[in-house]
Amino acid sequence: MPSPIKTAATALAIILLSVTASFGSEEPYRDECHSIKKITASDLNLEYNHKNEPFEEGDEIEAVLTAPSGGKATLKAGNNPLFETDMYEYETGKYKGTYKIKYGDRLKNGILKASYESLSGSAEASATNPITVSAYFFKVRIISPENDSKTDLYFDIQGRTRPNVKVFIAPAASIGGMNPFASSSKSALGSVPGAIETASDDKGYFKVHYGFPIKVPIVNMKFKFYVSAMDSDGKRSLPASFTVTMK
Question: What's the pTM?
Answer without folding.
Answer: 0.68
